[in-house]
Write a structure and sequence with these properties.
- This protein has helices at residues 20-32, 39-52, 63-73, 91-98, 117-129, 152-162, 213-223, 247-257, 260-278, 311-320, 336-342, 350-358, 370-385; strands at residues 56-60, 81-85, 87-88, 102-106, 137-140, 167-169, 177-178, 181-182, 189-193, 206-210, 284-285, 292-293, 299-302, 330-331, 359-362.
- With 389 residues, the chain is α+β, with helices and mostly antiparallel strands.
- The chain binds pyridoxal-5'-phosphate.
């Protein structure tokens, strides 16, 4: 009989850590028969607010929903402008369009892959000098790329200078810190994701963290059909969505929170091993901003400049060798919708062009062994050395 290569031999890109406590937590909710947003969601919200250090945390069915209602809670609507980085998961820009507003993109820094501060300053200056756009700048959404926090002091300084609120897209950054402050606690609003590729998971899920009680209240109404949570009778005060998290997910989130610290430590250790393996090769990797602690939602290696046209080929070859890898994230202005709607072309965001063509996400999860990590890096280095590619 021919032995098929078993699934376990494949080095997986990502894998959530689900244990017996998680199973029990989910099972208890299912047995109880109370499945929709209830006590377990409320418990998760308290845990998140406590951990992040904000007065309020409001759970939703995804981080995309969290970002969407955050913009709505700031009154974002037709004609408004929101500044977002060019390199992120597509939601960061899509939610702006879902409010019928316009995303304006910044390029990124070549080392941290976060919003380029100089570009942000230039855009804010240009938009505020023009009387037709000055009043419409509704928000800045810095993204903490792959768990590495954006340059928050500079971003907050600009947000104060131009009086524009900041929504942190902290989807990948639960547990990341910047000058000892938690991701999601620095801007007016912070949004987190519990998708299975993020550090802890509820299957799908997200949360809005804020110190602002008016925003928290608005988000609670928007997630639940516009029902005013303060009113004794069921009163619908605005047209809302159904963006609620289930109690099954809430229970999983509570149980996952117990593993957050361990998971962050494991990822940091494994990232340090990759750093060592990559040193003195042709590869490089995402830099860590001084004074910040990276949450390593993902570990991003960069191919050498002369191999940047080979990214797709490298991903395919790695996969054939039993190693799952993927691109970094999305060059949003170069996707069909944004390119054709706003007429972007190559060269408009040169650093994003470069990073997006060179980034490769390496496997990172608790089951990954040091032997696996050596295999990942040596395989990638061997591919770079091949003259034919
Ligand atoms: C994952 C992610 C999102 C979306 O999160 P979902 O919970 O999947 O909706 C938004 N922004 C960034 C930067 C992400 O990585």
């Amino acid at each position: 009989m021919v032995q098929k290569k078993s699934k376990s031999q494949v080095i997986r890109l990502a894998q959530p850590l689900i244990d017996e406590c998680d199973n029990q937590a989910i099972s208890d909710v299912i047995q109880s028969g109370y499945l929709v947003q209830g006590k377990k969601v409320a418990e998760l919200e308290m845990k998140i607010a406590d951990y992040v250090g904000t007065k309020h945390a409001v759970a939703l069915n995804s981080c995309t929903s969290a970002l969407h209602v955050s913009l709505l809670s700031l009154g974002c609507g037709p004609g408004d402008i929101v500044i977002v980085p060019a390199y992120s998961w597509i939601s960061t820009a899509n939610v702006v369009c879902l409010c019928n507003a316009k995303p304006v993109f910044t390029d990124i820094s070549p080392d941290t892959f976060n919003m380029d501060i100089h570009h942000l300053a230039k855009i804010l200056q240009q938009l505020s000098q023009n009387s037709s756009t000055a009043k419409n700048i509704k928000a800045i959404i810095p993204v903490h790329a792959f768990g590495q926090m954006a340059h928050m002091s500079e971003i907050i300084a600009l947000s104060e200078e131009y009086n524009v609120p900041v929504i942190e897209d902290a989807a990948c950054a639960l547990g990341a810190t910047y000058e000892n402050r938690q991701a999601g606690s620095i801007g007016e609003i912070g949004c987190f994701s519990f998708h299975p590729r993020k550090t802890i998971t509820t299957g799908e899920g997200g949360v809005v963290a804020t110190n602002n009680p008016v925003i928290a209240q608005q988000v609670k109404m928007l997630r639940n059909h516009g029902i005013n949570p303060e009113s004794a009778n069921q009163d619908f005060v605005l047209p809302g969505y159904n963006y609620r998290m289930t109690d099954i997910q809430g229970a999983l989130g509570v149980s996952q929170m117990d593993k957050l610290h361990t998971l962050l430590e494991i990822k940091k250790q494994k990232a340090a091993i990759y750093d060592d393996l990559i040193a003195n090769t042709q590869l490089s990797h995402q830099g860590v901003y001084p004074g910040s602690s990276h949450a390593y939602q993902a570990y991003i290696a960069l191919l050498p400049e002369n191999k940047k046209n080979k990214q797709a080929h490298f991903l395919k070859s790695m996969n054939e060798k039993g190693i799952q890898t993927t691109i970094g994230t999305i060059h949003i202005p170069m996707t069909s919708y944004y390119r054709t709607t706003y007429g972007y072309s190559t060269g408009d965001f040169p650093v994003t062009d470069n990073v997006a063509s060179r980034a490769i996400t390496l496997p990172l999860h608790d089951k990954l062994t040091e032997k696996d990590q050596i295999k990942v890096v040596t395989t990638l280095v061997e591919l770079c050395d091949l003259k034919s590619v």
